[in-house]
Structures are given as structure tokens and as C-alpha cells.
Amino acid sequence: MIRFIIVQNRQGKTRLEKWYSNYTEHERRKLKAEVHRTVASRDQKHQSNFVEFQNHRIVYRRYAGLFFCFCIDTNDNELSQLEAIHLFVEVLDAYHGNVCELDLVFNFYWVYAILDEMFLAGEIQETSKGVVLGRMDQLGALE
Question: What string of pLDDT tens digits covers the 143 residues of the chain?
């Protein structure tokens, strides 16, 4: 199960966060800082994208200046979560056309809509890029 999803820039500013477990506001701030410290300090070329973190595991991937981090249970498949991160970024790229940090900031409602189409209650719901993009087109037609 995914415990939380955090997207942060290199400076540690959180651009997207989704929590699937209960944490207080103080715990959330502390977790975001710890995740950034852990992920940003790793060597991208010689270390894996999986980090043991408290009683869970962080699966992350860096795209340009953004870190996409998933906190998962230790018994979950890390590679499937890494592919889910990649699929999420592919859908964002397809929808926004080469997504950047500013797209996440100014179009956050679409980013959360895409996130909600792909993940439900901490589990992967949809793995088809075409289906997710089709649903986003349907949402866009409603506006």
C-alpha cells in the first residue's frame, strides 16, 4: 500500500502531496523534511531508487528538478511502484506537453485529478495511459 506521495523540487519545496494514511500536520511536515533530506543526498548514478525509511520504504525517481517519492510498505513490489511513478510522469507529459514544475503549481487541480484517476486509497487503480487521458478529456469536456 502507498502511504503517501510527495513531489518536491531540489530545494525541498513540496509541489504535490497526497496522504493515504493518517498523519498529523506536525508529522507531515517532519516526514516531508526527512524524505527530502534522504532522497536529495543520494548519489543518482551509484545508488538505487529504493530507500529504507522508518518502517516503510521510499521509492523515488528524479525527473529534471523534481523528486517523485512514494512511501510504500516493505512487502510491496518496488519495481511496480517505480513503473507507476514513470507512468504518472508520462501521463502528465502527455496531458500538459512536457510537464514542468510550474505546470504542477498552476494546474494543480488537473494534477490531482490525474493522481486520483491512477491511484485509489493507496493502491494502483489504472495502469493504462490511454484510459487516464481519455477520462481527463471527458472531465475537460464537462467544463
Answer: 999 999 999 999 999 999 999 999 999 999 999 999 999 998 888 889 999 998 999 999 999 889 999 999 999 999 999 999 999 999 999 988 888 899 899 989 999 999 999 999 999 999 999 999 999 999 989 87
Site of grid cell 512514494: 70
* Beta-carbon contacts of residue 131 (< 8 Å; ≥ 6 apart): none
Q: State how far the Cα of 31 lies from the Cα of 39, in Å rounded to an integer.
A: 12
Q: For residues 117 and 14, what is the distance between their CA atoms, to the nearest angstrom?
A: 21
Euclidean distance between CA atoms 114 and 104, whole angstroms: 11
Report the predicted TM-score, pTM, of the whole model to 2 decimal places.
Answer: 0.93
Which cell numbers hold the place of 12? 525541498
Would you say 31 and 23 are in contact if contact means Cβ atoms under 8 Å apart? yes
Q: Given the C-alpha cell 517505480, which residue does it identify?
A: 82
